[in-house]
Design goal:
Shape: globular
Oligomer: single chain
CATH superfamily: Luciferase-like domain
Number of helices: 12
Radius of gyration: 20 Å
CATH topology: TIM Barrel
Structural class: alpha/beta
Number of domains: 1
CATH architecture: Alpha-Beta Barrel
Length: 366
């Protein structure tokens, strides 16, 4: 029986992931994230995932004007959840590996071994440059830096004392106790399809975020297999329900028609100023006619039956190991998904020997 994990891409920044003047405008709060976590546990989802974001992109909608720090909110929700894996994004430039190892171990202990980190080497460097923490030439060696950062943490998580003499970090008989509960290490997550990104994931990651092309899914698995490892390949999707397919599709059109083009242009400019080859795909994606946000993922639009059928088809045809959902209204939409769409999705996938959201679930009011 194949298991596919389902999670939530948590709205760390203002307005979630939709750059539209039509969708709800709100700022991220602990209360909102706690509500989302409760719903996710109740309907049997597998994980919560927080990006790391340190600046917004303006526009009339104030896209990502306010953001909350992911490790802090994950640690606060760890004792308030029981099953969910908790993944928080970390940029290695912001934490010395000995400090990061201690923080991650602490949250791992609070959660009972359910915590992991998503390692991001760049994204938009502008948000880190404003802090003055980006070394000269970093774009040329960012994965080498991240690799050394991870290797140091793995030593600290597994050795009584660690000595290391590398290009970026030096440890002299360094101690870090206690050790993480999860063995051999807390969960490690990464993203991307560049040669460097895949090489990093193949050596270190338990999960790798890619798109929905089956060739990319297989390429990622092959890279890990070459390192003698296995990896779960996951992606993001936007849930947009409607009472009918036509109503859902019309709502998507209205969201698109009211796109905050100023915020979108600011985001594209931030990518382009870094002048990295990998950003060409991102800026091309952001210029597509159906763009409604950033990070929102592939849109799955329709009435409940249609959504279940679309999701099942994507899961079967791509071979993906997991999906994290974004929503227009996270609490309302996830409750509806759990009450109406998920049972239909389970029934369809069972015919393909695929199971999703199989943990015991409490009753959830739609």
């Amino acid at each position: 029986m194949r298991k596919v994990e389902l999670g939530v891409f948590m709205p760390v920044g203002s307005n979630g992931f939709l750059m539209s003047k039509r969708t709800p405008r709100y700022h991220p709060t602990f209360e909102l994230h706690h509500q989302i976590a409760q719903v996710a546990e109740d309907i049997g989802l597998d994980y919560l995932f927080w990006m790391g974001k340190w600046m917004g992109f303006g526009g009339e909608s104030g896209f990502w004007k306010n953001t909350i720090e992911p490790m802090s909110v994950a640690s606060s929700l760890a004792p308030l959840t029981k099953r969910l894996k908790l993944f928080a994004t970390v940029n290695p430039l912001l934490f010395h590996p000995a400090v990061a190892a201690k923080i991650i171990t602490t949250i791992d202990n609070i959660s009972g071994g359910r915590f992991g980190i998503n390692v991001v080497t760049g994204n938009t460097l502008e948000e880190l440059e404003q802090m003055g923490v980006v070394p000269e030439g970093y774009g040329d060696y960012r994965y080498e830096y991240a690799d050394e950062w991870i290797r140091v943490m793995k030593m600290l998580w597994s050795q009584d004392r660690s000595t290391f003499d590398g290009r970026f970090f030096k440890l002299a008989d360094c101690v870090s106790d206690p050790k993480p509960i999860r063995k051999p290490y807390p969960y490690l997550v990464s993203a991307g399809l560049s040669a460097e990104g895949l090489s990093f994931a193949a050596k270190h990651s338990d999960y790798q975020f890619v798109g929905l092309r089956p060739a990319d899914v297989e390429r990622t698995r092959a890279a890990a297999a070459a390192e003698g490892r296995s990896i779960k390949v996951v992606t993001s999707m936007l849930l947009l329900h409607g009472e009918t397919d036509q109503a859902a599709e019309r709502e998507f059109e209205l969201i698109r028609e009211d796109l905050d083009t100023e915020a979108l242009d600011n985001l594209i400019a931030s990518f382009e100023r870094d002048n990295r080859d990998s950003y060409k795909d991102r800026t091309s994606y952001l210029r597509q006619p159906n763009t409604v946000g950033f990070g929102s993922g592939h849109p799955v639009i329709g009435a409940p039956d249609t959504m279940a059928e679309k999701l099942a088809q994507l899961i079967v045809e791509t071979g993906i190991d997991g999906i994290q959902f974004t929503c227009v209204d996270f609490v309302k939409d996830l409750k509806l998904f759990g009450a109406v769409v998920l049972p239909k999705l389970k029934a369809i996938l069972a015919r393909h020997d695929i199971v999703v959201a199989d943990a015991p679930a409490a009753r959830v009011a739609a």
